[in-house]
Amino acid sequence: MKKILTLLVSVFCTLSVFGQSKMDYTRVNTVTQVGDTLVVKYQYFKGTDADGNDMPDAKLYQFDIQYNNKLLNPVLYEWQPVAGSEQKAINSWTGYKFTIDDTKEQTDFDGQYLSWLSGDASYGSNSDWSVDRVTWQNTTSLENGNEILKVSYKIKDKANSNYTDYTNLINVNWANYKEEDGTQIDVTGQSTLSLSNIQGGDAGDVSISVSSNVITNNIGDGSDFSYTIFAKGDNETPLASGNFDAAGDATIQGLENDVEYDLYVSIDSSKEYLDNAVTVSDLALVFTEAIGAGSSPNGISTTFDYYLQSILANVVGETIPNGGDINFDDSYEILAYLQGVTSTNTTFISKKDEVYNISGIKSTFGDEGNGIATVSATFKPTDSDKSFQFAHAISGDVNFSHGFEPTSTNADIPTSAQSSMASSMRVSMAIGEKYNGEQANLDLTSELKDGQVIFTIGSEVEEMIGAQFNIVYDRTRLVLDDVIFDTGNTMTNFSNHLEEDGKINIGSFDQNFEATVKTGTPYKLIFTPTVQLQNTSGLITFRVNEGVKADGTQIKFIME
Amino acid sequence: MKKVLVLLSLVLLMGCVKDEILSPIDNTIEVPESLVIGDLQGIKVESTIVTDEVKMNIKLPYTGTYRVKIRDIGKELISQEKLQANEGDNILKVYVSSLSNDGYTLELTDDNHDIIGITSIVVNN
């Protein structure tokens, strides 16, 4: 019996639902972006009784609409012409939201109307919602499917609200349809109007960061880096720019969701440490490539470990984006730079006051594309992604001492494409950790002897085919008299004296990768004091002290 | 007469030698109050904030070869002097013109790098 009753109730309810009139509200157009105009039509559908006959006609059509005023801004109300003699009104209130009578379905619009009259449903204060009351009445009834009203709403940016999506924008709270004699007509409809995949709008705070060994190895810090943002594909009109903080982070405002931008990272070219970026270790890598790879740096026989190195090493000749063949022109330009020889060529060797920046999305930094390295400047803030990591490197710094060593597997040159001259040690090392180098002890001291200041570099390090020391001296108290090399008979020694800066870079390099720097005291600098000195503490400082092995492995000197 | 001259010469020579032996030998040096080190050994600078140069005292347990090291914030050695110095106080200088404005530590070690004393300076050129 219970089952029969349940079945009867279900059938009754089904018939009842199918028979009710409808207050239909649907969107007319397609909207995809913040700022688009959403047009919603409010439409009458006549119900039918259990026998399929039309329900009685109404003469009054009244309903309350509530819309989320944080997400929608009504800009146009358009009555839809029907008979021409109707009376109509729209009343509006801002700051109210309907609380339904939860003993009834939300979509039981006539029921909610009666509950509102009785106080079982009510309007409470809520600044996010506004209410429009639509009243239409006439001596003639609406036909099935007649539109009553069209409302155009501008879609607002949810970034300025507490809402994360557009899933609940408009509700009809109740409907009051009445026959001419005042009989209430059953009305139903959908519970809400929602939108999905609305793009654009203020992206709010977008976080960016930059990675470089300048930061990781405390050579400088993140505040040495700046960013410039352009619309994707443009590189002339910056949309935003600024500096990273000391940790290499920055927060950007004013960007839009779902819009692509290009971001370029630059390093402060005034930094002194940039003079230490391109060293004998880079020279060794480029020389090895020139010898071992011939004309196919990215092809079948490279000695490099990352595709990006063929761009960083391409310091002369073809433009950087093309990668280009790494040949002896490149290695000799670096050697000339280390020796202080001014080149007549246009070179891309980064140094103080002259930096060639390369930056891109960190996760794909240096990824291979059509045989050469690529970097992507493009990022797109979305609702779910507002944080972007960038990496930075500089041209000429082939061993990433002042740049970011790629970590993407697609940036790594497969062993099968590497020549036999490639470093077997680095080949076996993990991506992103191939250029950490080795360490060795060294003794660098200054001494006052017989009225002269003697700076000696004592080394017991073997297997070095090159070495470099960038030394700064107090030029207000010292004059450089002599540089004495005792590195071996076949080594090519170099010294680049920048007298006006009180700097001297000295070193050695065997272009045949055979001879090694002699142990003992391979380098000695002799200075004459220009003032009376009792001792030499602080007069001579050293920042870059490194050696290089035949396979290009950097040796970082550790001094006790 | 010849004997008298020889005698006089001898007396003169003896007088010279005698004077030298009897002269007081002064190994002490005047240590400014700001550089006085109470312990038997150590290193002290006249001022922590340094422009161009600053006096320092290295007080040593014995005469010999020592090292004065300058390390940066990451403890990396960036300058090192090797010097012969006497037991006790030695008033010397640290020159900072070629150092960038930053904080540094001064380390006094013996020739085998065993630390005798440490102090810090801030360069403000």
Which structural traits does this protein have?
heterodimer, A: mainly beta, Immunoglobulin-like, 3 domains, elongated, disordered N terminus, B: 125 residues, alpha+beta, 5-stranded mixed beta sheet, 1 helix, 8 strands, globular
Q: How many strand segments of chain A?
A: 29
CATH architecture of chain B: Sandwich
Biggest interface, which chains?
A-B, 27 and 27 residues
- Beta-strand level of the residues of chain A, as a percent range? 35-45%
**Unreliable stretches covering 5 or more consecutive residues of chain B:** 10-26
CATH superfamily of chain B: Macroglobulin (MG2) domain
Percent of residues in β-strands of chain B? 35-45%
Shape of chain A: elongated
- SSE class of chain B: alpha+beta
Overall mean pLDDT of chain A:
89
* Oligomer category: heterodimer
- What portion of residues of chain B is helical? 10-25%
The profile of the biggest β sheet of chain B is:
5 strands, mixed
**Count of beta strands of chain B:** 8
Largest sheet of chain B, order of strands side by side?
2-8-7-4-5
SSE succession of chain B:
HEEEEEEEE
* Main sheet summary of chain A: 9 strands, mixed
Question: What is the rounded Rg of chain B?
Answer: 22 Å
Radius of gyration of chain A: 38 Å
